[in-house]
């Protein structure tokens, strides 16, 4: 897409094409509302429940679009990625639907429940050491040996286009939305959402929600270039990645603000999702609600007129034991 | 409704009228599906998520219909009930919407979170001792002093008609449903659902799910008359009531079977709702999933051809502490 001389990795056409392509396979997730949460936040909130998506997170949209876009020759050799998170399971599921192999390089020490998901969806698990260099080394060996196509979790135009379908659906479901709050990690989801939403409704505000212990997006926007953190520390295990060269330009140009949240605020929001909305949301997924309720958002005069806010609950894959532990320790 | 010489307290017309009346106030709750749960159960399951209803349970439909059906003179004096459960909160909320008082007699020892809900929705709490005789005595004093109208939680035609709107919505959302599984307690929900569903689709099967420690409906159907249990013992705190004279004829005539579940099966289903569907469902609300997965349902040749099953997840009001405790103790 050409805009101010910039090219982005996706645009409204590629997102609409992705929607047509993946529609038969993805859930059109419902939008929930709660008068209690409206009254607590002082806004009208519309929760887009991607935790109900197949595989338990929005990741299936992008993975599905990437897999379905392969030509027959590429597809035959399968797809690969290195990830211990929701993208690994989503890619396995997308490959299963197409009947092609998925090779997933998983670092030792990855959470059992996420590895179980990969296996359940028929992905082939290849173990690596937990360091990034080992992951990349093993992955490149797998690519070489199998001839499979690497599907990056976010730095990929097809993946960004797939994630953008969240916004297409949301704005079709609730026309009056004036703001969308989206968790930010590598930037695949928010890039797709921003490109779709600002094309449909140029006045819409796109706000990122980021944990304090992994605030590289906020730092990057302040610095005007991609900042990578040497260490991250947050309960939101899905929000530790850094921006890529395809997501950064979109985040730089189209994301209006980044709200930074403490882990304790994220846990509180997760608890409200469960107790008030009756929805199980993982920490990375609940951060958008935490942002709406945060003092820094509420007191910012720029966001006073955000009245109808779409909040993307991006995923629901949380281990029940950790959930109970985190509630107990935050009492 | 006349059927085999029997009159029922509601019929498809009163249910459709209720639907028109309450539509502006209730959530049209979404229907969720899960390929994992389809594969585990060997059927196509359609989860009607009444846990997302206002007040966290289907109860708001009946309470709302009852309150909105009062004439101005009756309404002015308010409504009353004695309950420590979801009906109390639902009635308070319905009264609040109409701007009329709700007097709720609450037995001492009622769960704090449910009393909090009543207060949050503006109901006036009047305490009684925990015995049924004290509850009734206090309630009758309240009725006398205030001139308010008693709204029974289930033995009331308007309440039954309101609950029946669950089936109207479900059959509009998913036409191919051939069976609906509904939790049974006093019988208000299942009576409304059975009357609506069998009128729209006479071939549909209506199956009740009941906890073993409160199996009065199964015993009543076997005996051909209302059986009241002296003691009940189940984790499903919403399913301890006995059938009333308005719900019994419908349960007797239109409910095709009662599946009885152990508490451990209910807890397991509650856990699957949370981990697989990502939905927080209280024990009484998860019992329908437990029924579909139970050996007694799976091995019963009469239900072999139940292919597309609506499962009503009736409520989601569960205290997070008890939730974590019950999962820990059932490990």
From TrEMBL, chains A, B:
<dbReference type="GO" id="GO:0008721">
    <property type="term" value="F:D-serine ammonia-lyase activity"/>
</dbReference>
<dbReference type="GO" id="GO:0000287">
    <property type="term" value="F:magnesium ion binding"/>
</dbReference>
<feature type="domain" description="Tryptophan synthase beta chain-like PALP">
    <location>
        <begin position="23"/>
        <end position="315"/>
    </location>
</feature>
<dbReference type="GO" id="GO:0030378">
    <property type="term" value="F:serine racemase activity"/>
</dbReference>
<comment type="similarity">
    <text>Belongs to the serine/threonine dehydratase family.</text>
</comment>
<protein>
    <recommendedName>
        <fullName>Serine racemase</fullName>
        <ecNumber>4.3.1.18</ecNumber>
        <ecNumber>5.1.1.18</ecNumber>
    </recommendedName>
</protein>
<dbReference type="GO" id="GO:0003941">
    <property type="term" value="F:L-serine ammonia-lyase activity"/>
</dbReference>
<keyword id="KW-0456">Lyase</keyword>
<dbReference type="GO" id="GO:0018114">
    <property type="term" value="F:threonine racemase activity"/>
</dbReference>
<keyword id="KW-0663">Pyridoxal phosphate</keyword>
<dbReference type="GO" id="GO:0030170">
    <property type="term" value="F:pyridoxal phosphate binding"/>
</dbReference>
<keyword id="KW-0460">Magnesium</keyword>
<dbReference type="Pfam" id="PF00291">
    <property type="entry name" value="PALP"/>
</dbReference>
<dbReference type="InterPro" id="IPR000634">
    <property type="entry name" value="Ser/Thr_deHydtase_PyrdxlP-BS"/>
</dbReference>
<dbReference type="InterPro" id="IPR036052">
    <property type="entry name" value="TrpB-like_PALP_sf"/>
</dbReference>
<dbReference type="GO" id="GO:0005524">
    <property type="term" value="F:ATP binding"/>
</dbReference>
<dbReference type="GO" id="GO:0070179">
    <property type="term" value="P:D-serine biosynthetic process"/>
</dbReference>
<dbReference type="InterPro" id="IPR001926">
    <property type="entry name" value="TrpB-like_PALP"/>
</dbReference>
<dbReference type="GO" id="GO:0006563">
    <property type="term" value="P:L-serine metabolic process"/>
</dbReference>
